[in-house]
Specification:
The chain has 126 residues and is mainly alpha-helical. It has a single domain, classed as Cytochrome Bc1 Complex, Chain D, domain 2, CATH 1.10.760. Helix 4 packs across helix 7 and helix 6 packs across helix 7.
Length: 126
């Protein structure tokens, strides 16, 4: 009987520990921090470099070589939304505009790398 009670206590402890280690937002049913925090991390230069290649394969024809397009296509350096908004827009496109959906061609991690590149260009602008 003692062993069974110890096993239950150990299981409860493991659950509590996992909850605490997962962070306060996840413990309360929220999401983990997004790549907004990762964009400020020391490896953001590596993300931007990877994003540069992807950007030039997918985006530059409309948005310009350094995310500067002007005219009717948005200058991506001025994007101020959250990462989720950027990912959603790239995945779904913008109906009624020339912006196509890229969900069949770019994964979410690839889109986040593109965003890191775009943000690096915005920082270079300042």
């Amino acid at each position: 009987m003692h062993t069974q009670q110890f096993s239950k206590s150990l299981a409860v402890f493991a659950i509590l520990l996992a909850t605490v280690l997962s962070g306060p937002t996840q413990a309360m049913g929220g999401k983990r921090p997004t790549d907004d925090a990762a964009a400020e991390a020391p490896d953001s230069a590596q993300l931007a470099a990877a994003g540069n290649k992807l950007y030039h394969q997918s985006c530059y024809k409309c948005h310009g070589p350094r995310a500067v397009s002007g005219g009717t296509v948005p200058d991506l350096r001025h994007f101020e939304g959250k990462s989720e908004e950027f990912v959603s827009t790239v995945q779904e496109g913008r109906p009624g505009t020339i912006m196509p959906a890229w969900k069949e061609f770019l994964s979410e991690p690839e889109i986040l790398k593109i965003l890191a590149y775009v943000r690096s260009q915005a920082a270079a602008e300042k």
